[in-house]
Amino acid sequence: MPRTPDQDAPFHPLGTPPGTPPAPAQEATIPSPQEPDTNRRPAGGRAPVVVAGGGIAGTAVAFALQPHGPVLLVDDGEFPGLGETRTAVGVLKAVAGHPLLDGWARTTWDFALAQHHHPRSPIRLTFAALNGRPDRAAFLDHLLFLDAMLLLARRSGLQLLTRARVVEPVLRGGRVVGVRVQRPGGPCEAIPAAALVLAPGPRPDSLAMDGLPGGFASRFVRVKDVVIPFRLPEGSRAEPAVYTRRSLIWQFVLGPEPRALLAAARLEGDWAPPSFDQLVALVDDLVTRFDLPGEAELDRTRTLIDLRGPGGLPFAGPVAPLGGAEGLFVLAGLGLEGLSLALGAARQVAAAVTAYTGLAPSPMR
């Protein structure tokens, strides 16, 4: 049976202790000056930490930071999670196969379990074996997972600015003091910021902005995951499972639907969807290597784009030690493991940000 969360640990689905009214969630407004207006700050006089990017990684960072002070999440979509996160495969792993990443995966897994077991949470996990180990993976609605973190953060005061993009940090003396934000058809406008966290997803242009070390973007490799659905033969029965073959390019998912299998191939180089001939070659390679039965449903193939971090690992932390600006942080390169690693990586970034800003946890409002 899956491990249940510690019943003695407090867990509040709305992010606040019982009986505490939540703070009203408000849409952020943009001041007009070209330099940050330091008089326009949240109650308490603190400039917010600005998180640029509302995918699974950026939302997780905002969620992890919110108990420590004011946070502003900026996303260029109509709502967080409508970029590459929307098309992701909703697979969660309890381990990721690397000592650092395993800790991140455990953090995310524990949060998902707490949501799964709480009667007021809409998140429900379908447990699966991971490389033959029972209940070490799970299928879930990944957008509900993102929404859960967003709701918890909004209920404790997170500000959200949508249909806007952080185009550059405002630097003073090599330190972040604000950000410039642009909405479609409008001028760049400035917002004060105690720090800036970039969680760009697959957008190398965001990793080449002012304040980042020279050549920083070149540390990341463009990758695409080609997900090919297979329909297994009539009468096939297989329990939900996830398999990884780290010596090869393939990962396999036996989904909760009967007779459904997903084969994901990781390719580097560009983000162009494979041609029909390339898809046929991938399927031939897959069937030849693994003697896979069933029929590939090429019309349902998806191409998911992402970045691979330096040395195959994500980058999660400050860029100042590499020669970048003080107060500028990056979380990028989570790749195909983004859902599994998001919250653990976000908490590492949040710890670095709070150490830099000197913020102490404030009571949930």
UniProtKB/TrEMBL annotation:
All residue ranges annotated as the FAD dependent oxidoreductase domain in the record: 137-351
Highest taxon above the source species: Bacteria
Keywords for the protein's UniProt record, in alphabetical order: Oxidoreductase
Start-end of Pro residues biased regions: 15-24
Pfam families assigned to the protein according to its UniProt record, in alphabetical order: DAO
UniProt cross-references to SUPFAM superfamilies, sorted A to Z: FAD/NAD(P)-binding domain
GO cellular component, one term: cytoplasm
Entry GO MF terms: oxidoreductase activity
Region (Disordered): 1-47
Protein's UniProt name: Flavin-dependent dehydrogenase
Taxonomic source organism: Thermaerobacter subterraneus DSM 13965
